[in-house]
Specification:
Blueprint lengths: L1 H28 L7 H29 L17 E7 L4 H11 L10 E7 L4 H9 L3 E4 L6 H11 L5 E6 L3 E2 L3 H18 L6 E5 L9 H5 L11 H10 L13 E4 H6 L10 H11 L3 E4 L5 E2 L6 H22 L9 H13 L2 H16 L10 H22 L6 H23 L25 H18 L5 H5 L1 H22 L10 E2 L3 E6 L2 E11 L3 E6 L11 E6 L5 E14 L2 E8 L4 H12 L16 H16 L12 E7 L4 E6 L3 E6 L10 E4 L2 E12 L2 E6 L2 H5 L2 H11 L8 E3 L1
Parallel strand pairs: 1-2, 1-4, 2-3, 6-8
Antiparallel strand pairs: 4-7, 5-9, 6-7, 10-12, 11-12, 11-14, 12-13, 13-16, 14-15, 15-16, 17-18, 18-19, 19-22, 20-21, 20-23, 21-22
Helix pairs in contact: 1-2, 1-14, 2-13, 2-14, 3-4, 10-11, 11-12, 11-15, 13-15, 13-16, 13-18, 15-18, 16-18
């Protein structure tokens, strides 16, 4: 371990030294001083962008090297103080709020009388007030709010008084453990300060922003099974690194704050659109520390549609720029140097999109428009640029390996870059947004979203044109001397191709999100327990369970299900079979749930949303490369373009190979509802009426010749046969593959 840490220090130090040498050389010898004014200005901007890129990389590496482990303290349950839980809503739908309120009311706490939950509604809506009454929680309305979310929370703070305050966005559903995982840090901090006045007071505890549905990157790029949510890199890595300097960034939800710290900072700031980021910094500037935990303690709904995501990022970017200006960061004497670097890094992040555009345009200008913005030859770049590039890349891979790679970060930057450059530039010069836009979580995709693909498509075309014109007619050493230009063009083409694929979108089929989870379940038919098993997945509208035995269940039969939560409480739901499919050695039964009474529905919602959605990855799959993702995208889009009719199977099915005695026939398929014969005999000679199997007779009705020499029949008396225990046992052995031959007679 010591040797490994030493090697990392050598790597980081080498990256710093070689990068310093490279950037110095770039500024002294490679700027196009003899070129046009445009080329010179672009060249300076490009050089400055490289400086900032490497500076932010070094901050990340430095933060990673200072990582401090934060462990939840063990405290006396009697020490848990009163806490106000503020669920902040603007115009969100009542059914979305219901999930959050329902979960908040079931959070664990030693004395639940100390938990005071409020709906803070700045639209003063009757349906929200009615929701608050239904759950017997507080309702704090606000009319004529002119100060956005800050005004709403500040108003709620006037009507509450607990020493701790938890804040939740309307869609952020807390897990039952949320308070038990966050409040102990404050209890321990109070005890430590009684023993030592030099200990900093704790301002807030931030838990990761987590989402129960795939984000637009995961979904549009067919990567929801191998890359984490795009925001996880900040929430679970960068913000956790910030613990080393007691300066975790406040992200607005899933957070517990000290009321005293909020008051010391002057309340939620009203002169910014990222009040959370600025309040956190103000709390730190008042001498309070802040920490970020690693495990998600709430999950929300991330928008699917492209316009909402872009508008969200524009708002975040503008807000951080505005807040950093409000803080007078560089001259703020209340913040330490490490704290300033943390907030400066947040500021510079939003300039990464402008830098990405410069990196894309530089080789295009040279190869397509014959404008040189870097004056250097191949050997100089190999000697000075290449070592720096490789060492920084290796350092970044070590610093961000768990959640994402540097390459995937470049893809994400490329996607957003064309749409964030201008808003960030305008905000930097003090030109603010005219209106505050709340992210629309209910928006859906439309064909107009394809217009967003135009900017990356144009840049992609120019990059391809550049690589063709630059390399056309070159051979041998000429290609080698231009290989670095070709490398950057290829990199940009790859990233831009992902960007175009992203904006092409992907159809949304599910009405509600599906959670992979194994929950004990009992399945009843007509008050008879068919089996006890576990769920395979659950959603608001359905569930799936697995069975090692095949069961014949009519699709319109209403089954009763009893699911058991972690407290072994029984939750009742009803539903019908929607599909049956083979899953290894078992069968997977998909169920459409029917409407339930309100109490059962609320209990079921808790079961779904009480923990992280393990259908989605928390870390990246190291075996899946960006190239793999690209190939998967192309394959899926080709497959998507092919028309296909999907007919679900309602019964367990088996592919057989059982000969029939009196004919040149083979029994090849059975699914309770139908069976299939294969034969070389003509269709007319294969219309049978009965199939005798051992002691059972199946009465048949000819349906069709579904393919040459394949004949499908309907089993007319299956319900009558299924009442016979011997028949059920025999068919189960047949479907499970335990019966490989039989006395079968068709007539």
């Amino acid at each position: 371990m010591i040797k490994q840490n030493s090697l990392k220090k050598i790597l980081y130090f080498s990256a710093f030294v070689f990068t310093l040498i490279y950037l110095t050389w770039r500024g002294l010898y490679t700027l196009p001083i003899q070129g046009s004014w445009f080329a010179l200005i672009f060249g300076i901007l490009l050089w400055f962008s490289e400086i900032v890129s490497n500076f932010t990389a070094m901050i990340l590496v430095w933060s990673k090297s200072k990582t401090k482990t934060v462990q939840k303290p063990i405290v006396d349950p009697q020490d848990f103080p009163d806490i106000d839980v503020l669920i902040v809503t603007h115009n969100e739908a009542a059914d979305l709020l219901l999930k959050t309120v329902n979960a908040a009311c079931h959070m664990d706490y030693p004395d639940k009388n100390k938990v005071h939950i409020y709906l803070s509604d700045d639209m003063a809506r009757a349906e929200v007030e009615s929701l608050a009454k239904k759950f017997s929680i507080g309702y704090i309305p606000l009319t004529n709010n002119t100060e956005a979310k800050s005004g709403n929370i500040n108003n709620a703070l006037k009507h509450t008084s607990s020493p701790l305050v938890a804040t939740f966005d309307a869609d952020m559903i807390p897990y039952t453990e949320f308070l038990m995982e966050t409040v102990p840090y404050f209890i321990e901090n109070v005890q430590q300060r009684l023993e030592d006045e030099q200990v900093k007071p704790l301002g807030f505890v931030q838990t990761p922003q987590s989402f129960y549905n795939p984000d637009v990157f995961q979904y549009n790029l067919f990567s929801e099974d191998n890359i984490p949510n795009e925001q996880d890199f900040f929430s679970k890595e960068i913000n956790v690194f910030n613990n080393a300097h007691d300066t975790a960034i406040y992200t607005g939800s899933n957070t517990v704050l000290s009321r005293e710290a909020i008051a010391a900072a002057g309340g939620f700031p009203t002169d910014t659109i990222t009040e959370d980021f600025e309040l956190g910094a103000l709390i730190n500037s008042e001498g309070y520390k802040s920490i970020s935990t690693l495990e998600p303690m709430a999950s929300g709904l991330t928008p699917y549609d492209i316009p909402s995501v872009i508008n969200q990022r524009i708002r975040w970017g503008r807000g951080v720029i505005q807040s950093v200006h409000n803080l007078h960061l560089l001259t703020n004497k209340k913040l330490s140097l490490p704290q300033k670097l943390i907030f400066l890094n947040s500021y510079l992040y939003w300039w990464a999109f402008s830098r990405r555009i410069l990196y894309i345009l530089a080789p295009i200008l040279f190869t397509v428009f014959n404008t040189q913005v870097v004056v250097a030859n191949f050997f100089q770049l190999v000697a000075l640029w290449l070592p720096s590039y490789i060492l920084v890349h290796l350092s970044m891979r070590d610093a961000s390996n768990r959640i994402r790679t540097q390459r995937w970060g470049e893809v994400q930057e490329t996607i957003f870059a064309p749409f964030l450059v201008l808003p960030i530039l305008l905000q930097t010069f003090g030109i603010k947004m005219k209106t505050f836009k709340v992210t629309n979580k209910n928006a859906t995709s439309s064909k107009r979203d394809l217009l967003y693909a135009l900017p990356p498509a144009i840049l992609l075309f120019l990059s391809i044109l550049g690589i063709v014109t630059f390399n056309y007619g070159k051979f041998g050493s000429e290609i080698m001397y231009g290989s670095i230009i070709t490398f950057w063009l290829c990199t940009n083409i790859f990233n831009l191709s992902f960007s175009v694929l992203f904006f092409l979108g992907r159809p949304i089929y599910r009405a509600s999100e599906r959670f992979l989870t194994e929950i004990p379940i009992q399945v009843f038919e007509n008050q008879v327990c068919l089996l006890e098993t576990k769920t395979y997945n659950i959603s608001e509208n359905g569930l799936a369970f697995s069975s090692t035995e095949p069961y014949y269940i009519k699709p319109d039969t209403v089954l009763t299900f009893y699911l058991f939560d972690k407290y072994n409480k029984r939750i009742k739901r009803q539903g019908t079979i929607a599909r049956v499919q083979k899953l290894g050695d078992s069968w997977l039964y998909g169920v459409n749930l029917v409407e339930a009474d309100e109490a059962s529905y609320l209990e079921y919602l808790l079961l779904i949303y009480s923990a992280y959605n393990h259908s989605l990855p928390q870390t990246r799959d190291p075996w899946v490369t960006n190239f793999d993702r690209f190939i998967v995208n192309i394959k899926n889009r080709i497959q998507q373009a092919k028309p296909r009719a999907y007919k679900p199977s309602y019964y367990p099915a088996a592919h057989l190979a059982i000969p029939i005695q009196n004919e040149e026939l083979e029994w090849t398929y059975f699914d309770y509802e139908t069976l299939v014969f294969s034969s070389t005999i003509s269709t007319t000679e294969n219309v049978f009426h009965r199939l005798h199997v051992d002691s059972f007779t199946l009465i048949l009705e000819f349906i069709e010749e579904e393919a040459p020499q394949r004949y499908r029949y309907r089993i007319k008396n299956i319900e009558e046969l299924y009442q016979d225990h011997h028949f059920r046992t025999y068919i189960q052995t047949l479907i499970k593959g335990e019966q490989t031959h039989a006395d079968v007679l068709a007539y």
